[in-house]
Design goal:
This protein is α/β, with parallel strands linked by helices. The chain is 39% helix and 25% strand. The chain has helices at residues 21-30, 46-55, 66-76; strands at 3-5, 9-12, 14-16, 35-37, 41-44, 59-61. Helix 1 (21-30) packs parallel to helix 2.
């Protein structure tokens, strides 16, 4: 399962494809104070990245892959 949801956090794991975007958006809208854990994520479909960027959520853990982290961190940093 590419995304594991709880009330307080969504943990994106391995490869998140376009098929997960609708559920991710629905979860983000229903859990407005929740954060995102990207520690185990290796790839995000652009639609998933855009969904996360527009949600402006706190990222509780960044990807372990430094190159991937360097690419997405500026796009997902909320300034908090």
């Amino acid at each position: 399962m590419p995304i594991v949801y709880s009330e307080k956090e969504a943990s994106l794991q391995e490869v998140v494809t376009i098929q997960e975007v609708d559920d991710l958006l629905e979860w983000l809208l229903a859990n407005t104070d929740a954060s995102i854990d990207l520690a185990e994520c290796r790839h995000l479909h652009l639609a998933a990245l855009q969904t996360l960027a527009s949600a402006r959520r706190k990222v509780s853990a960044w990807p372990q892959d430094e190159a991937f982290k360097g690419w997405i961190k500026p796009l997902l940093t909320t300034g908090e």
